[in-house]
Amino acid sequence: MPGSFYIVSTPIGHLDDMTIRAINTLKSVAFIYAEDTRQTSKLLKHYAIKTPLISLHEHNELARIDEIISKLEEDLSVALVSDAGTPRISDPGDQIVPQLIERGIKIVPIPGPSALLTALVTAPFELREFTFIGFIPHQKKAQKTLFDRIKNYPGVLVFYEAPHRINATLKVMYEHLGSRLVSTARELTKMYETCETFTLSETFEIPSPKGEYVIMVKGFYGTLALPEDYLEHYEILRADGWSEKDAIKEVAHARKIPKNTVYMAVKNAKKESE
Q1: Top-level CATH class of 116-217?
Q2: Which of 7, 88, 171, 201 has the most CB atoms at less than 10 Å from its CB?
């Protein structure tokens, strides 16, 4: 449609995941704004799409807004694509879209691949509720603010992370969330696609991390703050498949009490049941 702004999802790895509608849209618009024109050029060449490409990334997004609005007001159609997946999900587009809506310009989403949803369906968690966080901040103060806000969320927490930061990020998550169950997915739809599940700990590290990661963290199981709830808290974790050692450590960590306090409570409870 003339004067419309199309947000087009593209493959996250496997080129066959490109939809027919996405191909036809990119062929029919007047211009394609791409996060990385070099990356998008490979996709366009594969599907014989000859539409002109213009770069749009985090460093020039604001500068491109007037240019895009001018084209749309001339009844030219424009598409936005990211390097891979669905634009605006931790990618450029957030600055532009609200301004287009304010001017009454039609936004047309072209659905397709998303690393977020592709990874989520591989996780061993109930998916009735989840929240997408994206990349965690690098500054410790900002990290604490973020995790203080989300640590009691009952649904699945979803993050993105680069390979060179994945292990540092897992340690930050353990520091703020404790020994939660975590599922990771990397290289999705590619030859070396890997999905793993493990429990956060002080010492756990992913050996030789490669590829972009989606990290999914099991939600908080409830607030049990009273001392008499030590054992109830412990039993909930054990029923969830946690080892005795990790369950004791997590109860102590969550309540900020000595591990030995929890250990002795568990030990005494065992004696009483014998």
Answers
A1: alpha beta
A2: 7
Sheet hosting strand 181-186, strand order edge to edge: 130-134, 156-161, 213-217, 181-186, 194-199
For the segment 100-114, what is each residue's pLDDT rounded down to a tens digit? Answer: 999 999 999 999 999
Q: Which CATH superfamily is domain 5-113 in?
A: Tetrapyrrole methylase, N-terminal domain (3.40.1010.10)
Q: Compute the chain's Rg from CA coordinates.
A: 23
Instruction: Please write the tens of the pLDDT for every residue from 193-251.
Output: 999 998 888 888 999 999 999 999 998 865 444 345 678 888 877 877 788 888 888 78
pLDDT in tens, 15-40: 999 999 999 999 999 999 999 999 99
24: three-class secondary structure by DSSP: helix
Phi, psi dihedral angles at 193 (to 5 degrees): -55, 130
Spatial neighbors of 98 by CB under 8 A, at least 6 apart, are none
Domain ranges of the chain: 5-113, 116-217, 227-273
Which of 113, 119, 46, 109 lies closest to 85, judged by CA?
113
This prediction has a pTM of 0.79
Q: Distances in Å between the alpha carbon of 155 and those of 67, 127, 152, 257?
A: 41, 8, 9, 26
The amino acid present at 117, given as its one-letter code, is: L
Taking a C-beta distance cutoff of 8 angstroms, is the pair 150, 46 a contact?
no
CA atoms within 13 A on the CB side of 67: 11
